[in-house]
Every structure is written in structure tokens, then in C-alpha cells.
Amino acid sequence: MPSLISPAERDYILKGIECNIRADGRQRPDYREVTLETGVVSQTSGSARVRIAGGTDVLVSVKAEIGPVLVDPETGDGADKGQIICSVECAPSASQQFEGRGADELNNELTQMMSRFLSHSGPAASSFLSTTSSSSSSSTAASTTAKTTSGAGGINLSKLCIIPGQQCWILYVDALVLDYGGNLMDAIFMGTRAAIYDTRIPKTEVQDLGDGQFEFEVLDDAEDTEEVAGREDMPLCVTLNKIGARHIVDASPLEELCTEAKLVVAVNRSGELCGLQKGHEGGIEPSLLLEMIQSGKTMGQSLIKQLDASIKKEAESDLAKRQRGEPVHKLGFFAQ
Amino acid sequence: MSRVELLTPEGLRIDGRRPAELRKITSTTSVLSQADGSAYLEHGNTKVLAAVYGPREARRRAQVLHDRAILNVEFNVAPFSTGERRRRTKNDKRLLEMASFVKQTFEPVVITSLYARSQIDIYLQIIQHDGGTLQACINAATMALIDAGIAMTEYVCACTAGWVESEAAIDLNHIEESSDTSEVTIAMLPKSGKITLMQMESRLHVDKLEEVFTLAGEGCKQIHEVIDKTIRERAEDLAKKMQ
Q1: Contact B134, B98 (CB under 8 A)
Q2: What is the extent of the structural domain holding A229?
Q3: Chain A nearest CA to B213, separation (Å)
Q4: What is the spatial distance between Cα A125 and Cα A106, in angstroms, rounded to a whole number?
Q5: CA B228, CA B220: separation in Å to the nearest integer?
Q6: Is residue A334 assigned to a domain?
Q7: What average pLDDT is seen over chain B?
Q8: pLDDT over threshold 80, residue B18
Q9: B238 CB neighbour count, 10 Å cutoff
Q10: Smallest CA–CA separation between B22 and chain A, in Å?
């Protein structure tokens, strides 16, 4: 990640974007090529690696573990819900700036944003929206049409509960940023969606012992597993960068340095907004803001379609290979 | 705890290898865009990523040495790399110790006097853990340093060997490592035959040491061949692209 940019370079990028030709030949609303592979880390419940052609490389893993339910002491919510715990870590190998404690602030920002977008519960999110919808730059907003069972994050947390009030599945979503080439947030969310699609949770059998006592057993049959419920409704992020009077998506590191203001739009497949976050120091005019949200929304939806198609294709080819008894080779880092 | 049978009556190990057989090693270099040099290495299911930055200006002025470069090694373990999810902090004593082992291994090999008043950073990232992380890290770091074009007198190749039940065995995996086998990790300069690192954590009869030691040395030489092949292939590939 370069930290400085010369005035000449800034001017070149600015004028290029004005003419709709960016430094690498793309137009304003173009994404770079994305390489995606699922099932890359065998010790996890699900994993995916996303590489954006310019260098961004993110490894996301999902681990399902059993733990106690987390009950909100005030509202009593959460007794019948599982949990999703997100964490983002930028490896020092990703950029010069990340050495020592250099990545701590960014790690925290990305982790918080991801937790907000993914693990929101429905009713809480809607009530939050109604109180803050008047301020256009509210940090988080959830769709009012989000169903009560699945919040803005899409994932059905109730399905993750094993014994209400006692035990539940906790999904640990760990994103590891290995290489930095701009547009981290979008890559992390693409990776998370793919990793959740790859995740299989073992089935459990609950026995009622009477007197409100329950006991459960985890079936360790590799075939007898469940997919994560509500994974289709998970949001995807589109980061829009305002440079000059225009906005672009999928910014390269140099373009990110020229960015005045950044807007992260989280959207699900039906086009509902699941979250907004404005970043950087510059301001955005209300009319441009609406335009940016609109283009983020349409772009997010088409991105979800493309991503789902590629995940499905990979899963099908893996399944076909397994049925034929052939080994499934994952390229991992050998895919360049 | 019931003891796992590590060696079958036919003399095969738990993963089907013979005692003197290494796991499959696959590797590649230049995997990262920002780092000056990088390498990715797999020893069976142990997967390691190494990145080298530098020689660059030292972060802390007080550390600068006027006649040579300082080496800085950082160790990072992904929370999902082990069977049980576990987050490790940067100050984990075990990780700091591993980092200092790697640093000491490379200090005599990297020609630091060429890069006076600068710093060379080696970042090691463990993506999947299945035994032998130290050896994998050293091998990956060698490749990343070569990829970064940093002057070294020789390759450094590391290999582990241990005494499994009744025989010396090479390149122990996680199950063998965790069931109370004594394990020796050595790092060797394959051409001159010098040892730059030797580490053993548990008890081993002195009569058996030589056998284990020779086996690890043999392993280092084999690993050298594999690494050298990858490096040469990558260099040829680059040379071709330049034409």
C-alpha cells in the first residue's frame, strides 16, 4: 500500500476518471477480474480465497463450534439464536504499512463493519433504522422489509440454535488479508459469501430428558451435514469512491489515495440495502449520494448473480469429480 | 489417553509413509504483489506463506547498525490453522521464540554487511498447521529471500526427524508430533554441510541421536533439491518473459 502520491500522478488519475478511462484501462463502473476458490483450508467448516487481479488476496474461513447462547440481559433476546463472530486480520505481509501495529486500526474498522453487516438481528435493526433514518450518513441502516427471522445479515440465526437458552452453534468467520491491492472490503465480503456457501454444519440430535433437561449429540457422519440457512440472503458490499465529481468502483491502491470520500453499500440479492458506511474525510452532496447508493445497489445485485453462478459451477464440478472417484485438487496459491 | 499406534507391523507410518520418506513438498515464489519477495510452501498439509520486505529504512532509529542490516522476523498463525480455533496475540511467547529461531538461522547466511543501516523484514504466516511448522517456515523464508534478491551465501534448508516407537522417522506430522515423540529440527547449509539451527524439545537417548540426526541431514539435502528446482524454474520463466 503506497502512502504517498505525487501531484502529477493524482492529476493523471483524476483527469482519466473524468474521461471515463482509468489507469488500467477500465471504465468507471468496471470491476477487475476476480478469482475465487472454495474449500481451500481443510481444517475448517468452510473456506474461500478471493483474489482480485491487481493484487488483493483474502482468505476467509468459517469454523463452526458449539458454545453457550448469548442472551441480552436487558431485552432477553438471543436465547434461541446462534452467533456469528467476525474478525478481519491484515497480515503484515500484505503491505509495508502493516508492520508492527500498523494494521490494528484498519483491522478493527473492517471487523466492526463486517460484524454489523452480517450479524444484525431483524427487529433490532429495523428499530434502529426508524430512529436514525433522518440522518443520511447514519453508520448502519437495515432494510425495513427484512424478515424477523433473518436480519439484515441474511443468515438465519435461529437455525443455529441447538438447545434454546443453552447451547448454540457459533460461526467464527475469520478473514485474513494476505495481499493488498485496493478494495479490501468488497473482496472480504465476496470471500465471506463464498466461504459460508462452502460451510457444512454437522447435524445434531436433541433428546428431551424431561424436567426441562436436554441432551444433544453431534452426528459425526460427513455426509449428514447442513448448509447454513439463509445464506442466499447474505449481503455483498460495493465500495464506491468519489474522485472529483465522479465515482468509481473497485479502486486500485493509487486511486484509493485520490479518493475524497468513500461509500460502502451493502446490498442483498433482492436489492434491499443492508448497510451503509461513509468513510474518508471528504463530503458527498446529497444528490450524488443517492446516485451512488443507486449504482451501488444495481452493481451489488449483478455481482451477487455472477458470484453465485461461479460458486455453483465450482461446487458442481467438484461434486462430479467426487462421484467419478477422482481426487479434487485445489489450486490455492498455485492459481496465479 | 490411549496411545496411537504410530508404526504398523509392516513398518508404515500413520499416514502411510515409510520412516525415511518426506511428505510431498510443493512450492512457488512471487505470490504477493506488495512484498519484495514472497514464497508459498506446502509440506503435506502444513501450509506456510513467507513475505520479505527490504532492505529498507529501519523503523526504529535506535536499532540501526552502522555496518550491517538488521533482520526482523515476525510470526503469525492464522486463527483457523489448527484443529481448534484459537487466536494468538502478537506477544505469544511461543511465537516470539520461533521467530527468534528463524532470525538466528538466517543471520549467518544473509550477507548483511552489504545492506548497512537498513532492515530486512521476514513475515511468516502459517495458514494450515500439520506438524513441522518451523522447518516449513525456514524453507519458505529461504525461498522468499531468494525471490527478493537478497544476497545469501547459501540456501538454508530445514528438516525434522524424530524417534517414532522403534525407528528413526523423518518429517513428523501433527499426530506423530503430539504423541510424545522426541523430535529434532535442524537447519543445514546443504553445500558446506554446516548446521545453523538445532532444536530438540523432548528426551532422546544419546545413542539414537546420531541416527535421527543423519536422517534429518538427508532430509535437508532432499528438500534443497526440491526448493532449488522450483527456484530455477521460476528464474527460467522470468528470463523467458524478459526476452
Answers
A1: yes
A2: 7-324
A3: 31
A4: 25
A5: 12
A6: no
A7: 91
A8: yes
A9: 11
A10: 20
Q: Global pTM? A: 0.88
- Which residues of B make CB contacts under 8 Å with A? 26, 28, 31-35, 38, 40, 45, 47, 49-51, 53, 56, 59, 74, 76, 78-83, 85, 87, 121, 123, 125, 127-129
Q: Which of B80, B90, B125, B175 to mutate to test the interface with A (most CBs of A within 10 A)?
A: B80
- CB spacing of B85 vs A65 below 8 angstroms: yes
pLDDT of residue A140: 37
Task: Give the right CATH number for B25-242 from 3.10.310.10, 1.20.120.450, 3.30.230.70, 3.40.30.10.
Answer: 3.30.230.70
Residue A44 lies in a domain: yes
Give mean pLDDT, residues B1-24.
84
Instruction: Give the total number of structural domains in chain A.
Output: 1
Contacts of A89 in chain B (CB under 8 A): 78-79
Mark B189-214 as b/e (b = at least 16 C-beta within 10 Å).
bbeeeeebbebbeeebeeeeeeebbe
Question: In this model, does residue B89 exceed pLDDT 90?
Answer: no
Whether B13 shows a pLDDT value over 80: the answer reads yes
Whether pLDDT at B41 is above 90: yes
* Cα angle: A49, vertex A249, A19; to 5 degrees: 140
Asked whether the beta carbons of residue B128 and residue A41 sit closer than 8 angstroms, the reply is yes
CA neighbours within 13 Å on the CB side: how many for A4? 2
CATH number at residue A36: 3.30.230.70
Residue entry with cell 426441562: A212
Per-residue pLDDT, A125 = 39
Position A251 scores a pLDDT of: 93
Which residues in B lie closer than 8 A to residue A54 (C-beta atoms)? 33
Compute the distance between CA of residue B155 and CA of residue B105 in angstroms, rounded to an integer. 11
pLDDT digits (tens, 9 = 90+) for B105-158: 999 999 999 999 999 999 999 999 998 999 999 999 999 999 999 999 999 999
pLDDT at A2: 67
- Percent of chain B beyond pLDDT 90? 68
**Domain locations in chain B?**
25-242
Q: In B153-205, which residue ranges form alpha helices assigned H by DSSP?
A: 174-178
Residue A1 counted as domain residue = no
Q: Which regions in chain A score pLDDT beneath 50?
A: 122-150
